[in-house]
Each structure stands twice: as structure tokens, then as C-alpha cells.
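Quick one, C-alpha cells below:
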């Protein structure tokens, strides 16, 4: 269910919606679709081969990003050049307005397409991202969880399928 909440926040942050979670679930089936892993993972195994797909759960990464980064580099045959300190990535945020979120997303996308990644990095250092993509009221957590209760059985079934597929249990529980 946490992944569904994360997807909802993603849609809110980038100005795709400003409605409550219940209405967003009806309007954006991807909120649930992005939270069902087993079928997608099986497809990746089929396309790329099981040995070419490394499954890492977010819960296993928290606090271990430099170690994970090093493991990935070694796995693809590269040597890590230096230790990096990495903070929280992809933290949930709600923009002050839907229009600001859309504007920020549009400008960032155009800059990426033009190869101007240094301008994006400068904007982040100057706090432009925070200005555009945060400051709005966060939805009530109990409202989020209540709206997702109807999907609880589907999340539980997916967790069981994922456990069978991987031979290990995902570190999250279906609340």
C-alpha cells in the first residue's frame, strides 16, 4: 500500500491531479497498477532473463545506498571511484498548486531534452525544486490508508506471488 501512496504523491507533486486519493484511484488506475509487482517482474524475467535482473527492495536500501551503488558497479564490471554520501531520494511532496507542479515538470522535461542537466542541478542547489514541488498541504494519512483498504486483498495476493517468484518474502507487510 505504501507504493500506491507514493504513486499518488508523485501524481500530485507533478501537477497531474489535485484531487483526494479516492477520486484519484478512480481517475488513475496506475496508482494501483504500479503497486502490483509480480506480473511485471515475471515479464522482466522473461524479456531479460532471470540472471540479468537484480531485485532490491527499497527497505533493504535505506541507509545502504553507497554499498548498493558499489555492488551494482562491481556487478557490471566497473570499479567504484569514490564513496558518495546520499540522502533521502524521491521524498514525497505536494506542490503549492497543481499549476506550479505542472510548470516545474514541463520546464524540467524541456531542460532534460535539451541536455541541460547542469541547469537542473543548479536549480536544485538554489532551491527551485523545493519552491515548485513542495509547500502544499499533505493529505491525511488515515484518509490515504482507508481509500486503499479495498485493494488490500489484491496487494496480499501480489505479495504471495512475489514471494513464490523470488523465493524470498518482500520486507513489507500488507496492512
Amino acid at each position: 500500500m505504501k507504493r500506491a501512496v507514493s504513486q499518488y504523491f508523485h501524481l500530485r507533486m507533478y501537477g497531474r491531479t489535485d484531487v483526494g486519493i479516492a477520486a484519484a484511484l478512480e481517475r488513475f488506475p496506475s496508482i494501483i497498477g504500479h503497486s502490483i509487482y509480480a506480473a511485471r517482474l515475471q515479464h522482466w524475467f522473461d524479456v531479460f532473463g532471470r540472471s540479468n535482473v537484480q531485485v532490491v527492495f527499497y527497505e533493504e536500501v535505506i541507509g545502504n545506498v553507497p554499498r548498493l551503488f558499489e555492488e551494482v558497479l562491481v556487478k557490471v564490471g566497473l570499479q567504484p571511484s569514490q564513496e558518495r554520501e546520499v540522502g533521502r531520494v524521491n521524498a514525497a511532496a505536494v506542490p503549492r498548486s497543481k499549476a506550479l507542479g505542472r510548470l516545474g515538470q514541463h520546464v524540467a522535461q524541456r531542460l532534460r531534452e535539451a541536455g541541460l542537466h547542469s541547469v537542473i542541478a543548479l536549480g536544485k542547489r538554489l532551491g527551485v525544486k523545493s519552491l515548485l514541488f513542495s509547500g502544499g498541504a499533505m493529505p491525511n494519512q488515515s484518509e490515504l490508508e482507508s481509500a486503499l483498504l479495498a485493494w488490500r486483498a489484491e496487494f496480499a495476493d501480489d505479495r504471495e506471488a512475489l514471494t513464490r517468484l523470488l523465493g524470498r518474502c518482500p520486507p513489507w507487510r500488507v496492512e
